[in-house]
Every structure is written in C-alpha cells, then in structure tokens.
C-alpha cells in the first residue's frame, strides 16, 4: 500500500539533555557525520512531508543556526520552558496554526535524540496508521531493558489502552517489555484537539504527549501500537555511553550496506564511515580507516590502512595508504602515501604519485607527475610528467602574502630545491640539487644556484684534533697512501 504525504512532521529538540553533561545541546551531538537531529530529519525527509517543524528551546540559537546550515527547509517552533513532550507538541501545533496551517491528514511526531531511525520505519508506521484508520498509532518496540521508557499498556483482550511513563508505572506495568519508541502517527485534526487537553497530573508535573492515547481512546477513537521490526532503531540517546553505542550500531549498519554492495572492508571494527560516504564496488578498505563527510571512493581503489579522509574524492584504482586528507581530489590510478597529508584544494591528477612525508595544499599535481619524498607543496601548479626531487619546499608565503609556483610539463627538479614564489619553472627544464629557485627558469634550461664547491684540505685535523672524525680522516689518508704505494710497485 502506498502511504500519503504527511501533512507535517514534528520533531522535538527543545530538551537540554542534562545526562550528556555537555555545553552542546544533546540533539546536536554527532554520529557518523550528522547531528542526531540531522539523522532524524533525514529519516523524516524520506516521507516527503509537506512541512517539517522542529521544536527548539534549550540553547535554541545554536539549534536554529544548525538547522539553517543543514536543513534550511524546516521551520521551528519555540518552547520557552521545557514543560514536557506534550507541551512541546502543543507549541508546534500553535506555531502551525499561526502560519495559517489547519492540520488534516497524517502528522508524524518523532524525538530528536533517536539517530538510528530509518525512513522506512516511519513509512511502515504511517502505513499501519492509515490502513487501520487510527486517531493515533504509536511505534512500539520490544526491548531487552525497558527501564526508563514509557510502557505500552494493553487490556485483558490485548487492546492497547494507554502509555504509562516509567516513573508513573506500577510494578506490574514496569514488567512490560513493550515500550513507546517516541514516534507516532497522528490524525492531524485529532492531534490539534488533544494537545489542549493534556494534564500535568504525573510524577514530573509535565504535559506528556503519551497521554494523548488514553484521551483519544476515551473519545471513542481507534488507537494502535505498531511494533517496530528492529528495536535498535528506536533507541534514544540520553548519555555519552548510549551515544557511543548508537555510533557503533549506525557505523555497522552503514558498513554492512557497503559490503553488500561489493566493498571489501577488511576490519569493520576499526573502520568508520559517515552516512554520506559513497564507495564503489571492488574497493578495499583496509583497517584503521575513517571516511568522513562527503568522501567518495571509486571502483577498484584501495584505501588504508590508517587513512582519515574528509570530504575527499578518490578515483578508480587509486591506492591511498596512511593518508590524512581534507577536501582533496585524488585522481584515478594515483598512488598516495604512506604518510602524506593532503590539505584543502589539493588535486592529484590521474596516475600521479604523492609519496612519503609529503604535504600538499591548494595545489595541482599534474597527470603522471611524481612528488615522491619529504616535500611541502603549497599553492603550486605542477604540470604533467614532472618529477620533484626529494626534500623540496614550495615557499608560498613571504610573511605578508601567499604566492603561486608553476612547474611546466615534464620538468625535473633536483633534490632539496626551494621554489620562492611567485616563480615559474618552464616546460622540460631541469634544476640542480640544492637550487634556490628565485627567478623563472626558461623551458629546457638547467637552473643551478649553489656556488662552486670549495674543499678546505686538512680542516678537521687542525680544528678538531683528537676527535673520532680526525682519526677516521687520518686512517683514510694512511690507507690512501698505502694504496698509492701498492699501485706504484705494480
Ligand atoms: C520519552 C517518552 C517515553 C518514551 C521515550 C522514548 C514522554 C512523556 N515520554 O521519554 O514514553 O518511551 O521518550 O525514547 O513523551 N523534549 C522537548 N521538550 C520538553 C521535553 C522533551 O522538546 O519539554 C524533547 C527532548 O529534547 C527529546 C525528546 O523530547 O528529544 C524526548 O524527551 P526525553 O526527556 O528524552 O523523554 P524520555 O524521558 O526519554
Ligand atoms: Ca529520551
């Protein structure tokens, strides 16, 4: 059965989350590259609702800013004081009324601290709700440890009658393993009528949205509880232990999806991926690897061990080992690392090589070019087929401004070169070892800047007498004389 487009999704995010012991509002804590609230909104988005309202309260400037940055289409309703989930929903309903929205059709309610939630679970809930013609349908779950949750109470015939909060429950009710997930599908008109009738007659003295069940049932309407297929999905996060558990579970779910799609994950236990990461088939992700943000890895690539890639695009068949990269483009067939650091704006063109202990920033390394060892490349454009000698530095900063260096195609620069930007090395040019390149090098020229080498004979014997160096030098001198004698005799 197809489900309707919900009239609205309401997400509660006004609570402080005291148990997190954090300056950051609870719902903004991140797992797998998204805030907890962001995960709930992503699941809700799959329902394609006509509007989404987030109820904000505690530290609301931060939550509102976060929503502006990540989910600009949602609107917010303010709950000045956190007087309970029912009060929070009332604020959302009043905000919608103020916008001129008369609720009819299905309204979905979820809490902002359930990051494992999946869109499919919400659409299953809406489907059950609409096919049963309920005034409200609660998503329930059988959990191993129901402590802390509201319990789903059924009468002798098994009919769902009400939700009782843990603090208000009798011992018999506490023994019930079926709990309220905190996700609901409401008939919009019934929701609008019920939020004004919630009492504060309970252990916390708050308006509970859970009381809507008993009230609507008392009005003679149908109410239902639909059991979630996977209880792990509805787990709420209240402290940092649960945050870590949720992160682990979500990561496992994401990795399972990638493995089923043809990715070899050598060690799932030490591999972390964010929700938005894309990985092509026949790729290998080696241990101790983190793929973060909008990172993508194309078919046949090998990433890891020991990589941390943030918003980085890895091309097909690239091999990337022990690399930290942020906002970099690693082309197909390239080899990067071990121990390379690619900073924002790095483009490694196809078949290029970035070797060991190399840092690259805001630079392009051309097709087939090599920067193999111990080098800093900052603000440079390196042409195709270039070889950069070991231990070179692109001096991009003069203390005031940053400047660029360009190296023409197929140039070969010597070891231990310094490129003092702005400077250009022409196509096919060479530079000698130890060159300080301060002036442009014409195409095909050889640039050398070091002076002619001068040897001061006997300096060690005179200035460092008795040292191990002096002894070694004397011995070598003696052996040299003997060898010369032997040659003379022959
Ligand atoms: C709630 C449910 C409980 C359910 C559990 C599922 C109620 C009364 N209880 O309990 O039945 O089993 O979730 O996880 O609904 N919030 C506001 N304003 C408020 C209070 C809360 O916006 O005044 C928000 C919080 O930010 C949070 C969500 O509502 O995202 C849930 O609040 P929380 O205090 O965590 O409720 P639980 O005690 O977990
Ligand atoms: Ca909770």
Automatic annotation (TrEMBL):
<dbReference type="InterPro" id="IPR005882">
    <property type="entry name" value="Bifunctional_GlmU"/>
</dbReference>
<feature type="binding site">
    <location>
        <position position="390"/>
    </location>
    <ligand>
        <name>acetyl-CoA</name>
    </ligand>
</feature>
<feature type="domain" description="MobA-like NTP transferase">
    <location>
        <begin position="9"/>
        <end position="155"/>
    </location>
</feature>
<feature type="binding site">
    <location>
        <begin position="12"/>
        <end position="15"/>
    </location>
    <ligand>
        <name>UDP-N-acetyl-alpha-D-glucosamine</name>
    </ligand>
</feature>
<keyword id="KW-0961">Cell wall biogenesis/degradation</keyword>
<feature type="region of interest" description="Disordered">
    <location>
        <begin position="461"/>
        <end position="490"/>
    </location>
</feature>
<feature type="binding site">
    <location>
        <position position="79"/>
    </location>
    <ligand>
        <name>UDP-N-acetyl-alpha-D-glucosamine</name>
    </ligand>
</feature>
<keyword id="KW-0573">Peptidoglycan synthesis</keyword>
<dbReference type="GO" id="GO:0071555">
    <property type="term" value="P:cell wall organization"/>
</dbReference>
<dbReference type="InterPro" id="IPR011004">
    <property type="entry name" value="Trimer_LpxA-like_sf"/>
</dbReference>
<keyword id="KW-0133">Cell shape</keyword>
<dbReference type="InterPro" id="IPR025877">
    <property type="entry name" value="MobA-like_NTP_Trfase"/>
</dbReference>
<feature type="binding site">
    <location>
        <begin position="396"/>
        <end position="397"/>
    </location>
    <ligand>
        <name>acetyl-CoA</name>
    </ligand>
</feature>
<feature type="binding site">
    <location>
        <position position="433"/>
    </location>
    <ligand>
        <name>acetyl-CoA</name>
    </ligand>
</feature>
<feature type="binding site">
    <location>
        <begin position="84"/>
        <end position="85"/>
    </location>
    <ligand>
        <name>UDP-N-acetyl-alpha-D-glucosamine</name>
    </ligand>
</feature>
<feature type="binding site">
    <location>
        <position position="361"/>
    </location>
    <ligand>
        <name>UDP-N-acetyl-alpha-D-glucosamine</name>
    </ligand>
</feature>
<feature type="binding site">
    <location>
        <begin position="111"/>
        <end position="113"/>
    </location>
    <ligand>
        <name>UDP-N-acetyl-alpha-D-glucosamine</name>
    </ligand>
</feature>
<dbReference type="GO" id="GO:0009252">
    <property type="term" value="P:peptidoglycan biosynthetic process"/>
</dbReference>
<feature type="active site" description="Proton acceptor">
    <location>
        <position position="373"/>
    </location>
</feature>
<comment type="pathway">
    <text>Nucleotide-sugar biosynthesis; UDP-N-acetyl-alpha-D-glucosamine biosynthesis; N-acetyl-alpha-D-glucosamine 1-phosphate from alpha-D-glucosamine 6-phosphate (route II): step 2/2.</text>
</comment>
<feature type="region of interest" description="Pyrophosphorylase">
    <location>
        <begin position="1"/>
        <end position="240"/>
    </location>
</feature>
<protein>
    <recommendedName>
        <fullName>Bifunctional protein GlmU</fullName>
        <ecNumber>2.7.7.23</ecNumber>
        <ecNumber>2.3.1.157</ecNumber>
    </recommendedName>
</protein>
<dbReference type="GO" id="GO:0006048">
    <property type="term" value="P:UDP-N-acetylglucosamine biosynthetic process"/>
</dbReference>
<keyword id="KW-0808">Transferase</keyword>
<dbReference type="GO" id="GO:0003977">
    <property type="term" value="F:UDP-N-acetylglucosamine diphosphorylase activity"/>
</dbReference>
<dbReference type="GO" id="GO:0000902">
    <property type="term" value="P:cell morphogenesis"/>
</dbReference>
<dbReference type="GO" id="GO:0009245">
    <property type="term" value="P:lipid A biosynthetic process"/>
</dbReference>
<feature type="compositionally biased region" description="Low complexity">
    <location>
        <begin position="468"/>
        <end position="481"/>
    </location>
</feature>
<dbReference type="InterPro" id="IPR038009">
    <property type="entry name" value="GlmU_C_LbH"/>
</dbReference>
<feature type="binding site">
    <location>
        <position position="238"/>
    </location>
    <ligand>
        <name>UDP-N-acetyl-alpha-D-glucosamine</name>
    </ligand>
</feature>
<keyword id="KW-0511">Multifunctional enzyme</keyword>
<dbReference type="InterPro" id="IPR029044">
    <property type="entry name" value="Nucleotide-diphossugar_trans"/>
</dbReference>
<feature type="binding site">
    <location>
        <position position="26"/>
    </location>
    <ligand>
        <name>UDP-N-acetyl-alpha-D-glucosamine</name>
    </ligand>
</feature>
<feature type="binding site">
    <location>
        <position position="376"/>
    </location>
    <ligand>
        <name>UDP-N-acetyl-alpha-D-glucosamine</name>
    </ligand>
</feature>
<dbReference type="InterPro" id="IPR050065">
    <property type="entry name" value="GlmU-like"/>
</dbReference>
<feature type="binding site">
    <location>
        <position position="150"/>
    </location>
    <ligand>
        <name>UDP-N-acetyl-alpha-D-glucosamine</name>
    </ligand>
</feature>
<keyword id="KW-0479">Metal-binding</keyword>
<dbReference type="GO" id="GO:0008360">
    <property type="term" value="P:regulation of cell shape"/>
</dbReference>
<feature type="binding site">
    <location>
        <position position="415"/>
    </location>
    <ligand>
        <name>acetyl-CoA</name>
    </ligand>
</feature>
<keyword id="KW-0677">Repeat</keyword>
<keyword id="KW-0548">Nucleotidyltransferase</keyword>
<dbReference type="GO" id="GO:0016020">
    <property type="term" value="C:membrane"/>
</dbReference>
């Amino acid at each position: 059965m197809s489900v309707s487009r919900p009239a609205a999704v309401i997400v509660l995010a006004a609570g402080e989350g005291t148990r997190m012991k954090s300056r950051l509002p609870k719902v903004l804590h991140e797992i797998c590259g998204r805030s907890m609230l962001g995960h709930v909104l992503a699941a809700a988005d799959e329902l394609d609702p006509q509007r989404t309202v987030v109820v904000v309260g505690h530290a609301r400037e931060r939550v509102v800013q976060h929503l502006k940055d990540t989910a600009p289409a949602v609107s917010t309703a303010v709950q000045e004081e956190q007087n309970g989930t029912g009060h929070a929903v009332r604020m959302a309903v009043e905000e919608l009324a103020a916008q001129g929205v008369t609720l009819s059709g299905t309204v979905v309610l979820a809490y902002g601290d359930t990051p494992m939630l999946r869109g499919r679970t919400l659409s299953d809930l809406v489907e059950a709700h609409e096919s049963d013609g309920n005034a409200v349908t609660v998503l329930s779950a059988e959990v191993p440890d129901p402590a802390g949750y509201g319990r789903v109470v059924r009468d002798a015939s098994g009919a769902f009658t009400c939700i009782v909060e843990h603090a208000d429950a009798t011992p018999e009710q506490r023994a019930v393993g079926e709990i309220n997930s905190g996700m609901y599908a409401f008939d919009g008109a019934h929701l609008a009528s019920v939020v004004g009738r919630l009492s504060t007659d309970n252990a916390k003295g708050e308006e509970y949205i859970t009381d809507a069940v008993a009230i609507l049932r008392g009005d003679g309407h149908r109410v239902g509880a639909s059991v979630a297929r996977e209880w792990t999905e509805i787990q709420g996060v209240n402290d940092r232990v649960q945050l870590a558990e949720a992160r682990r579970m979500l990561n496992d779910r994401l990795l399972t999806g990638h493995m089923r799609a043809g990715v070899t994950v050598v060690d799932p236990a030490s591999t972390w991926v964010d929700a938005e990461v894309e990985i092509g088939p026949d790729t290998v992700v080696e241990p101790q690897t983190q793929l973060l943000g909008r990172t993508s890895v194309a078919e046949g690539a090998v990433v890891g061990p020991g990589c941390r890639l943030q918003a980085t695009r890895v091309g097909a068949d690239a091999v990337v080992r022990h690399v930290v990269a942020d906002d970099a483009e690693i082309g197909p067939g390239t080899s990067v690392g071990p121990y390379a650091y690619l900073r924002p704006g790095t483009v490694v063109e196809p078949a290029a090589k970035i070797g060991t202990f190399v840092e690259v920033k805001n630079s392009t390394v051309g097709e087939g070019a090599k920067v193999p060892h111990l080098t800093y490349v900052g603000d440079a454009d390196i042409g195709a087929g270039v070889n950069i000698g070991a231990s070179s530095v692109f001096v991009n900063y003069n203390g005031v401004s940053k400047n660029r260096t360009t190296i023409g195609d197929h140039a070969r620069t010597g070891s231990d070169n310094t490129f003092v930007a702005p400077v250009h090395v022409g196509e096919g040019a060479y530079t000698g070892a130890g060159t300080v390149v301060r002036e442009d090098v014409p195409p095909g020229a050889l640039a050398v800047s070091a002076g002619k080498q001068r040897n001061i004979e006997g300096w060690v014997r005179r200035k460092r007498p008795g040292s191990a160096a002096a002894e070694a030098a004397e011995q070598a001198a003696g052996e040299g004389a003997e060898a010369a004698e032997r040659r003379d005799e022959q």
